Amino acid sequence: MSNIIKQLSIFVNNEPGRLAHISAVLKECGINMRAFNLAESTEFGILRTIVDNPDTAFEKLREKGIIVKKTDVIGVYLQDTPGALFQAADVLGKASINIEYGYAYTYKDKAIFFIRVDNPEKAVDVIGKAGIRLVSESEI
Amino acid sequence: MYWNPKIECMPVEEMKQLQYEELKSLITKLYETNQFYHDRMESKGVKPEDIKCLEDISKLPFMFKQDLRDNYPTKMFTVPNNQIVRYHVSSGTTGKPTLVGYTENDLGYWTEALARSLTSAGVGPEDTLQVCYGYGLFTGGLGLHYGGEKVGATVLPASTGNSERQIELMMDLGVTAIACTPSYFIHLIDVAKKMGVDFRKDTKVRVAFLGAEPWSESMKKKIEDATGIETFDIYGTSEQAGPMFTDCECHNGIHIPSDIMYVEVIDPETEEVLAPGERGELVVTMLKKEAFPLVRYRIKDMTTILTDPCPCGRTSPRIARITGRADDMLIIRGINVFPSQIEYTLMQIPEVGDQYMIYVTREGALDNLKIQVEIKPDAFSDNMEDMLKLRHKIESALKKYLNIAVTVELKAPGELPRFEGKAKRVIDNRVI
């Protein structure tokens, strides 16, 4: 059971209708987004999303001519209490692991923090040792 | 007021004889001593003895910018290196720039042409001339500088940039004449306004020599209405020497001193010489240049020759305001930019795909160059910082090559327009 999750990163032009276009392609391909985040510059954006079945989704998007890349991220379960984010971030910081970006997903009492780190294997190891629960690939 | 009344007001027929003599000796010398000109004339089957009158110039072959590029750096030069006293460099179309060499006499005639022009605009020893053209490889700064000194004016070599300081100096030193690009002058007007400076009340600027980029009658009117300054259109490219020629106080075309440059206008398609008054491509022959002669050079500017007498008394022909280009060269903030240079630079960058678009806009007074490029799928990174670095890398490469700041936008493959016929990658939205 792997705790490293494959995220899809998609290049999106920052123009009216471009996100709609990408979403339409995702829909057409029957891809279900579990969580997503959009980082933008002036003229383009990077859509990062956690989907069920990333390998199939990746192939389908590529066939449609969309620029897509698979990126390893990890998902950390956070307790819905003050200080939960600090605990996870602190563990990574002490292990000198840099967080490039992250985004959260909350549903009812569940909160998951998806993060991109410079060393995912080491991150999985230290977070596990600190007793914080990680999302496994099969849970997506 | 004339700088050189004998030449400037010489009867046309007498001048034609002088021009013929100059042309004949130039062609004879080139045919005998320069491989390039020799071969070019041979290939057209023309010999110096075929030139029997001034009109026979139409028998001579053309020269092109490509010739200058093919012979970079000094193969075009017709004097030994120890006679070259200065170089100027302008951007070429791809890869190689254009290098121009000058003998002492070449600099002398360049300055002479400017002295006649400045005098025709009423500039003399009582004036202070602020030169806000770039000093350096570009011909504008040094050209106007020596021209101004020649007529006895006090020259302020302000060069470009630092606009607030330019305006302070203009006021403090009682500047009466200014030389710069029309777009920079409009910028100076805006800056002055912000500083609370009124050109009419707070400065003594009387005349402005504007050029090195295309501008229109409506822009002239706008500038003159805003400042009360009389503007002159200045023309000349580095191949000719630099900025050299202007209109006179009658403002009906740019006077072309006949003893220095012979002008023709041709139909760019048929290459036939057109009559005065007909619009076409300007072809120039420099009659006095020593280091780097030009014979029937296709300068690619579109204009009309005017030969009706000018009330100023000068007998030289005039050319109308340059109204366009016979090629795709863009002039952006006074700098020549060829789309082929942009393409050449982009294609050196491995992350860049095949498609790009060039947009030119004018924001306020300043030209802006924006280039959209499609990136290759492999160049995409999930890391925003990497993407911004890639954008910066492309911007830096273009800036280094074109000498002007460029805004780059990254696009996904397939996003930019595809062209079935002739690609139209340049969108120039400037209203001039």
Structure description:
The complex is a heterodimer of chains A (140) and B (432). By secondary structure, chain A is α+β, with helices and mostly antiparallel strands. Chain A folds into two domains: 4-71, VC0802-like (2-Layer Sandwich); 72-134, VC0802-like, CATH 3.30.2130.10. Chain A contains four helices and six strands, in the order βαββαβαββα. A six-stranded antiparallel β-sheet of chain A has the order 2-3-1-4-6-5. In chain A, a hairpin with a 3-residue loop joins strand 2 (33-40) and strand 3. The longest helix of chain A has 11 residues, at 18-28. Chain A starts with a strand and ends in an 11-residue tail after the last helix. The mean pLDDT of chain A is 89. With 432 residues, chain B is α/β, with parallel strands linked by helices. Chain B has two domains: 1-326, Rossmann fold, CATH 3.40.50; 335-428, GMP Synthetase, Chain A, domain 3. Helix content of chain B is 31%, strand content 23%. Chain B contains twelve helices and 20 strands. In chain B, the strands form five sheets. Chain B has a six-stranded mixed β-sheet. In chain B, strands 9, 10, 11, 12, 13 and 14 form a six-stranded antiparallel β-sheet that branches. Chain B has a four-stranded mixed β-sheet with strand order 19-18-17-20. In chain B, a hairpin with a 2-residue loop joins strand 17 (352-363) and strand 18 (366-375). In chain B, helix 8 runs parallel beside helix 10. Chain B is globular, with a radius of gyration of 23 Å. Chain B starts with a helix and ends with a strand.
